[in-house]
Write a structure and sequence with these properties.
482 residues; alpha+beta; Arc Repressor Mutant, subunit A; 3 domains; 9-stranded mixed β-sheet; 3-stranded antiparallel β-sheet; 15 helices; 16 strands; 40% helix; elongated; GatB_C_1
């Protein structure tokens, strides 16, 4: 039944900016402070208080626009979006409407079929957040509603896509790409749990081949990729079943309930005219000259796609490794620094994706807090290269670096881990092991090649893991074949 219909999805993403202060006043944007402790006459909407635009918000908007292939408007205007809600003390939200700061962008994603697809970005505009209403969240307030205005006037970017996505998987691919970009740029911390990156999904269905869009429902404020996927898939199924049963979809705003996996009606969907937009008389038009854009452009970091291509081209690592290593900007920078110090792209990738990531996950820490620096890791890898230690001993050295903060050379010296490469010393151990195991010698000479592994293990045990494995193998084969 669903196969008869095409899904149409457009997304509105709210990105909370990482400025120290709010968009129109000097109040702090720190998360988790005591309720109503980060407010002033401006964000409380007191009479006579005038907003003053935070220049850093504009810089972040330009940076995001450039990263998403948008045109930056030379002139944009702030507007008042009028509606009443208890956590909006002014009775309106300062946003942008007819003339936003960024328009006509795009993001390229990989679809589930494996092919590339370009998703249009209609606009990016700046706006302030509302406060937060809390309804009976504690036993003491079970019959009360409280308002915390710390979040009021917090700077947001709203990024509005074209209705170009045709499945929940495409929507998630777009959101993950956008999330990665804004975190790479440093304009957003990306925390979906704290509401720094949240999404409204506009979902409709239409029979295949129909040009006209179906009636859409907007699902509000979904704050995890998993829930967004569930909400879209449920909504598509709900709309198709409604149409097939002879009903029709109503344009409305709906909420997603993660406990049931269902959406439910919240209110009728407002149109733009319902908000009675008009230019804010307290804020002059924003004029952005080309030199301002170019100054911001110079602060553009290398974005994930470009970094991934460079890692594959310059460091010779496969696409999978490059994708893993560039998923997180600090991890990519750690790996990049390690390769520049050591020179081996693949061995650095193996250790960063292996031992480094394992340690981070076990301790629940970020790469910024990793006790093994790129300099320490590169120094250890050089000791593998020059045969000072073997790959097996290197894992012991790495664990010691992690727990003590000492470098590889210090640990190798203190713990006596230097690899035995003296041919005479290894040959003596080999002779001793062969003499002690005549039956196994005969088995090898009788064609049982696997017995070689037994001898290697015995020599390594005798050397306490310090014998050079390559030399051990070479000497064993030579003596066993004599």
């Amino acid at each position: 039944m669903i196969s008869k219909y095409e899904t149409v999805i457009g997304l509105e993403v709210h990105v909370q900016l990482t400025t120290d202060t709010k968009i129109f006043c000097g109040c702090s944007t720190r998360f988790g402070e005591a309720p109503n402790s980060q407010t002033c006459p401006v964000c409380l909407g007191l009479p006579g208080a005038l907003p003053v635009l935070n220049r850093k918000v504009v810089d972040f908007a330009i940076l995001t626009g450039l990263a998403t292939n948008c045109s930056i408007a030379p002139r944009s205007i702030f507007a008042r979006k009028n509606y009443f809600y208890p956590d909006l003390p002014k009775g309106y939200q300062i946003s942008q409407y007819e003339l936003p700061i960024c328009e006509h962008g795009r993001l390229d994603i990989e679809t589930e079929e494996g092919g590339p697809k370009s998703i249009g970005i209609t606009r990016i505009h700046m706006e302030e957040d509302a406060g937060k209403s809390m309804h009976g969240e504690t036993p003491e307030t079970v019959n009360s509603s409280l308002v915390d205005l710390n979040r009021a006037c917090t700077p947001l970017l709203e990024i509005v896509s074209e209705p170009d996505m045709r499945s929940a998987d495409e929507a998630i691919a777009y959101l993950k790409k956008l999330h990665q970009i804004v975190v790479y740029l440093g304009v957003c911390d990306g925390s979906m749990e704290q509401g720094s990156f949240r999404c409204d999904a506009n979902v409709s269905v239409r029979p295949h081949g129909q040009a006209r869009f179906g009636t859409r429902a907007e699902i509000k404020n979904i704050n995890s990729f998993r829930f967004i996927k569930q909400a879209i898939e449920y909504e598509v199924e709900r709309q198709v079943e409604l149409i097939e049963d002879g009903g029709h979809v109503v344009q409305e705003t709906r909420l997603f309930d993660p406990d049931t996996g269902m959406t439910r009606s919240m209110r009728g969907k407002e149109e733009a005219h319902d908000y009675r937009y008009f230019p804010d008389p307290d804020l002059v038009p924003l004029v952005i000259k080309e030199d301002w854009i170019e100054r911001v452009r110079t602060r553009m970091p290398e974005l994930p796609e470009a970094k991934m291509e460079r890692f594959m081209r310059d460091y010779g690592i496969p696409a999978y490794d490059a994708e893993v290593l560039t998923a997180d900007r600090p991890l990519a920078e750690y790996y990049d620094a390690c390769v520049k110090l050591h020179g081996g792209g693949k061995i650095c990738a193996n250790w960063v994706m292996g031992e480094v990531t394992r340690g981070l996950n076990e301790q629940g820490i970020a790469i910024a807090d990793c006790p093994v620096t790129p300099e320490m890791l590169a120094g250890m890898l050089k000791r593998i290269d020059d045969n000072t230690i073997s790959g097996k001993i290197a894992k012991k050295v790495f664990d010691a670096m992690w727990s003590t903060g000492k470098d590889a050379d210090t640990i190798i010296e203190e713990q006596g881990l230097k690899q035995v490469t003296d041919t005479g010393a290894i040959e003596a151990m080999v002779d001793e092991i062969l003499a002690a195991n005549p039956d196994q010698v005969e088995e090898f000479r009788g064609g049982k090649e696997k017995v070689l592994g037994f001898f290697v293990g015995q020599v390594m045990k005798a050397s306490k893991g310090k014998a050079n494995p390559g030399m051990v193998n070479e000497l064993l084969r030579k003596k066993l074949q004599d």
